[in-house]
Write a structure and sequence with these properties.
Length: 112
């Protein structure tokens, strides 16, 4: 499995869409909280479950969160992000878990 993270970016009209599909490696069994803020909208899914739906009706730059119970190891993850029509695309994805405080999700735990 490659460590390279290379999301696909598409331009649709005046919006940009980023899509990442891969795996996240969690260090320990437990409940993980994920946090997403963006200047437009996005959706975070783990396995087949929607953890955060910040798409329709999302207030720009607000922070949304969702929890998911995971076992240690690799889990499929996907992130869809749609930028606004104006300005630079911006989003922030963070997490916390049973063995660490809230932090940006490091590249070292994402696999493509």
């Amino acid at each position: 499995m490659s460590k390279q993270i290379s999301p696909e970016i598409q331009i649709l009209g005046n919006s940009k869409v980023l899509y990442f599909e891969g795996y996240i490696e969690v260090p320990a069994d437990g409940v993980y909280t994920f946090y997403l803020s963006a200047n437009a909208g996005g959706v975070l899914r783990i396995h087949e479950s929607t953890v955060i739906d910040a798409d329709y009706g999302y207030t720009r730059n607000s922070k949304m969160s969702g929890q998911y119970r995971l076992k240690a190891g690799l889990h499929p993850i996907s992130l869809y992000y749609r930028s606004g029509k104006k300005g630079k695309p911006q989003f922030n994805l963070e997490w916390n878990g049973p063995t660490f405080a809230k932090e940006a999700i490091p590249e070292s735990v994402l696999f493509h």
